[in-house]
Design goal:
Blueprint lengths: L1 H24 L9 H10 L3 H8 L8 H9 L6 H4 L1 H21 L2 H13 L2 H6 L5 H21 L3 H14 L5 H14 L9 H24 L4 H7 L4 H16 L5 H21 L1 H21 L14 H14 L7 H19 L1 H4 L14 H10 L5 E5 L2 H11 L19 E8 L10 H8 L4 E5 L2 E9 L4 E3 L4 E5 L3 H7 L2 E3 L1 E6 L2 E6 L6 E9 L6 E11 L5 E8 L5 E7 L6 E8 L5 E9 L15 E12 L4 H21 L14 E5 L1 E9 L2 E6 L6 E7 L5 E8 L4 E7 L5 E8 L12 E4 L9 E8 L3 E6 L6
Parallel strand pairs: 1-2, 5-10
Antiparallel strand pairs: 2-4, 3-4, 6-16, 7-10, 8-9, 10-15, 11-14, 11-16, 12-13, 12-15, 17-20, 18-19, 19-26, 20-25, 21-24, 21-26, 22-23, 22-25
Helix pairs in contact: 1-6, 1-7, 1-18, 2-4, 6-7, 6-9, 7-17, 7-18, 9-10, 9-11, 10-12, 11-12, 11-16, 14-16, 15-16, 15-17, 16-17, 20-21
């Protein structure tokens, strides 16, 4: 009998790991990247500096997962490679569950726990998803392994391993903090079996290490990011938080909403904890702390907004260990634990392979109907519509980024490597693709017909609607007489009808109007306008007005200007950040010429990511027009060029960025000012800038706010190390952070840029004290008279 058990002990680990590897890697590249998952390769494709900046600004996750994924993407960019890192981490988790269970209990218990962990498909799901969760679980299991080592031998070297794992956990996901608190409670309440006197030194060392990790995470990443605002916005009652935590915990027990399955796992977990309570109270205390402390903290703090099962996935580990060790405590089942493990493995395989196959291994497994839910099939369908002189635009920037990611892998000509429109193309095929969000160009297919023109052919590809429109081209702007004026219209069909060349760019419409943006980061887009002079030749003064938005660090916009076949002259126009929004090129031409060619070169760098995968929309060409003035009588013509440039400046710089006076409803007037001064010579119309009078301490503007709005906007501006924060006093007397903006670069943020923050429910429709705090020499807020929030 012992020989059989020994053979089973040798073969079952191979069986567990082999099955886990098969379930994780089988058809790993088949499902389409879903909404959140698609952000991972897009973020990881950015430069390292941009990944760090993204985590310090927009992204609520730490950067470690994206940095590691970036290394994996050097192997390829298909979905299998994108998911390879979490898959390997997931397989490592299975091995570590066995190792932790073996250290805490016995080898059979560790094997059974790993099998039960697989049978709760939450963790298998995360191992096949390009998100940080399986890597986070891997580091958590490393921490538990060192924790189990200390509780066994009492050696402080295990605490150093625990702290190293804790640092990696925090660098992967911020929900590590409740887990760190739980492990700290374990060190405090569960003495090691050997060297019990080492408990308090271990607790002090662990507490100091966690304090250092927390401080590094807060000051290095969290403070300047959106995370504080997200945490502040998550303000629930304990009852609401408990409800959200309970729903997420049900997903940990069994991922899919099958009440019977969840009930059976819950009963098995309850029996496991009960058996441990009777037979091994020390182990019961340990696993109960690991399970209940994170739950209790989330409920007590009321921070459960947006909580899903994946955020509590770490609780599946102590639950699986409790079930396995509980079985090991039962005298009749303990000798049969290997056989129970094999039976559980059979259930673990039947779930994803038979009962939930479409949720794991189908192309549309991860469909989430937001923006667009099957990017892979949408991209394949769009690629099938490509032909000569085809350009594609998108209703949503994120949707466009993900579809372009897939199009770049297509063997067919696509939006990324297609040469674009040339002067020889007499007809352009325009494709407008919309997922769940249509953006600003049109609200629907019918609205597209009404605005852009009838005749578009509709293609329904999965949940995407693609409208194909054939547009005749006239790629030369003609000047029949002097003085003359011509330009490129920015409307969707008009631009592609009149541009001489459009390469590496696409149409982009947002709330501020139409524009042309690059398709890819760090790749040059080209727009060419050709002007043919049909008037009799004579000396001319020529002015070329270029209008743009350039709000990304180190974005560049340049022009190459050429008469006929002469060598071009280069004109650098803008390097971001650039608050001017316009440039004028002044030319004097005495010799006769036939054509004037203007090439605009757009390059959006990855230095200022504004959403997953890109910053292309930080560089927008919003207008191009040329004025041809006869030198003999140029004054009126040149004045017209200047007036058009000034009007464009006001439209793009003031009215569309600052709130117009007529619409600037004051949400509250300042009641007190402390250490606030007006910035000398910083005034635009009725707008003026305020800054700390003494930059060594914060300047504060206090106002009493009463608003029914969901969002409020204001106009801060920060330079290097400058910071602007908005605090509100909660009815319970505590201060809550509503907004934080900090600049760690050496450039000012754009002047007059509008920022918004969410008004929490407890602040609406009642008076509350709000403080706007300016920190550092390079921090400002622009006000309209005394009005601050709009």
């Amino acid at each position: 009998m012992s020989v059989v058990v020994a053979r089973q002990s040798r073969s079952i680990p191979t069986l567990v790991l082999g099955l886990a590897a098969f379930l994780i890697f089988y058809r790993l590249g088949a499902p389409s990247l879903w909404l959140d998952e698609a952000a991972a390769p897009l973020n990881a494709s950015l430069p390292v500096s941009a990944i760090l900046e993204l985590s310090q600004s927009l992204e609520e996750h730490p950067p470690l997962f994206y940095l590691l994924l970036k290394a994996f993407l050097t192997l390829g960019k298909n979905d299998f490679i994108v998911r390879l890192l979490p898959a390997l981490a997931g397989l490592g988790c299975v091995a570590l569950v066995m190792a932790v269970g073996t250290r805490l209990f016995s080898r059979p218990v560790g094997l059974a726990a790993a099998a039960l962990w697989l049978a709760m498909p939450q963790d298998l799901w995360l191992s096949r998803m390009a998100r940080p969760y399986s890597l986070w679980l891997f580091f958590y299991l490393c921490a538990l392994y060192f924790l189990a080592g200390f509780l066994k031998d009492g050696r402080l070297r295990s605490i150093w391993g625990l702290l190293a794992s804790a640092a990696l956990m925090v660098a992967t996901h911020y929900l590590s903090f409740p887990l760190l608190a739980a492990m700290g409670c374990c060190l405090l309440l569960v003495p090691p079996l050997a060297r019990p006197r080492s408990r308090m030194p271990a607790v002090l060392l662990y507490a100091a290490g966690c304090a250092g990790i927390t401080a590094a995470a807060y000051f290095g990443l969290i403070r300047a990011s959106q995370t504080p605002a997200l945490i502040a916005a998550s303000d629930e009652t304990m009852a609401d938080a408990a409800r959200a935590v309970g729903e997420a915990l049900l997903g940990v027990l069994y991922l899919f909403e099958i009440p019977l399955a969840r009930l059976l796992v819950a009963l098995a977990a309850g029996l496991g904890f009960w058996a441990l309570l009777r037979a091994d109270r020390r182990s019961f205390t340990l696993l109960a702390i690991l399970t209940l402390v994170p739950l209790g903290l989330l409920v007590a703090l009321g921070k459960a907004t947006g909580l899903y099962a994946r955020h509590l996935s770490g609780l599946g580990i102590p639950i699986a260990l409790a079930m396995a060790s509980g079985l090991g405590c039962l005298p009749r089942l303990s000798p049969r634990l290997p056989a129970v493990t094999v039976a559980v493995l059979a259930l673990a395989a039947l779930g994803p392979l038979l009962w939930h196959r479409d949720r794991f291994y189908a192309v549309g497994s991860y469909q989430v109907p937001i923006i667009g839910n099957n990017y892979k099939l949408a991209a394949a369908g769009i690629a099938g519509l490509f032909g000569p002189a085809t350009v594609v635009s998108f209703g949503n920037a994120f949707y466009g980024n993900v579809v372009s990611w897939y199009l770049a892998q297509s063997p067919r000509p696509n939006a990324v490597d297609n040469p674009g429109l040339t002067p020889d193309d007499r007809t352009a095929t325009l494709l407008f693709a919309a997922g769940g969000h249509w953006g600003y160009l049109a609200e629907s297919a019918d609205d597209f017909d009404a605005r852009i023109g009838r005749g578009a052919v509709r293609h329904q590809i999965e949940t995407s609607t693609v409208l194909a429109l054939s547009v005749p081209r006239d790629p030369v702007r003609r000047i029949p007489a002097l003085p003359g004026r011509a330009g490129l219209p920015m409307g969707y069909r008009d631009f592609f009808a009149t541009a001489n060349i459009a390469r590496g760019v696409r149409h982009h419409q947002n709330a501020r109007g139409p524009a042309i943006i690059p398709i890819q980061n760090d790749a040059q887009g080209q727009v060419r306008a050709v002007f043919a002079l049909n008037a009799p030749p004579e000396p001319q003064e020529i002015r070329i007005n270029v209008l743009f938005d350039n709000t990304g660090q180190d974005n560049t916009l340049a022009a190459l200007v050429r008469f006929d076949d002469e060598p071009p002259t280069s004109h650098p126009l803008s390097t971001g950040y650039d608050a001017t929004h316009q440039r004028q090129i002044a030319l004097r031409r005495d010799a006769p010429y036939t054509t004037l060619t203007v090439d605009l070169l757009l390059r959006a760098t990855s230095r200022t990511p504004t959403l997953a995968g890109g910053s292309q929309e930080t560089l927008r060409l919003t207008g191009l027009e040329a004025f041809f003035c006869p030198a003999r009588d140029a004054a009126a013509c040149l004045d017209s060029a200047e007036r058009h440039l000034t009007a464009s400046l006001l439209a793009n710089y003031l009215e569309e960025r600052f709130s117009p006076t007529t619409d600037a409803t004051q949400a509250g007037l300042p009641a007190e000012r402390d250490n606030i001064a007006t910035v000398p010579d910083s005034r635009l119309g009725e707008w003026s800038a305020r800054t700390p009078a003494d930059p060594s301490r914060p300047g504060v503007i206090r106002l009493t706010l009463a608003t029914s709005r969901d969002r409020l906007s204001f106009f801060p501006r920060v330079g290097q190390d400058g910071m602007v924060r908005i605090w509100a006093t909660h009815p319970n007397g505590g201060r809550r952070l509503l907004f934080a903006l900090q600049n760690l670069t050496d450039r000012w943020t754009p002047i007059s840029a509008r920022y918004e923050f969410i008004v929490p429910d407890w602040l609406k429709d009642q008076e509350a004290v709000v403080d706007l705090e300016l920190t550092g020499r390079w921090s400002q807020v622009w006000t309209l008279g005394d009005a601050l929030l709009f």
